[in-house]
Amino acid sequence: MTGAGEVDGGPPDRTGPMERIRRWTSENVHRPDLLGAPLIILSGLFALLLISSPFLVENGSIDLGDEGSVGEIDHGGVISDIENPLARFAYRFGDRYCHQMDRRSFFLNGNQMPVCSRDIGLFSGLFLGCVAGSSYRKGMKLRVLVFFLAPMAVDGLLQALTSYESFNILRLLTGSLGGMGIGTYVNGSFIQTVRLLRLRAGKG
After folding, report:
1. Three-state SS sequence of 30-89
2. Residue 2 DSSP code
């Protein structure tokens, strides 16, 4: 009978947690695959644009107020006055795909960011996830992706359906987790698909 901590009657495994982590990392993680570079670059540049946009306009010139909705142009007048084309593009993207409520957004350089705190976390996490997805040998399983998305979904749904009001740091953290999950899953799947297509083309 094999006791706790023994494998096939052998001595107990006394490997410490740090050694287990090191061993798992060496077996499953490698340098980023160049096949994943396009998504890493695109997600990194877009996250950088969102974060830097408040510094591309005059200090204290942008506060989009406490009203806004997703899928509609709510702040077109203010955004059209932005002179810098990169910043204008970022804020227009936010106007279309984010509510842009100031109380749910961070301010940098005295300016409201182009998207809310959860979306800043989402796009920043997406970049980190794309890097991770190109470095993890086995790819992320769908159930693990659900685990990463769950905190963001729960926090967002509670806020939408009840009187519960989240706060910006929590929105940032849950968005970052969700973005990391999406980036890891998508870029890992993209790399595996390209490899499979290459293999099939080679056999053909």
Report:
1. CCCCHHHHHHHHHHHHHHHHHHHHHHCCCCCCCCCCCCCCCCCCCCHHHHHCCCCHHHHH
2. P
User: What pTM value is reported for the model?
Assistant: 0.82
> For residue 42, what are its two tokens?
């695109």
Say if 151 falls within a structural domain. yes
1 inside domain: no
Query: Residues 138-160: pLDDT tens digits?
Result: 778 889 999 999 999 999 999 98
Give the count of domains, the chain: 1
Do residues 100 and 68 lie in contact, with contact meaning Cβ atoms separated by under 8 Å?
yes
Any domain includes 18: no
Domain that holds residue 49: 33-203
What parts of the chain have a pLDDT lower than 70?
Answer: 1-15, 24-32, 137, 203-204
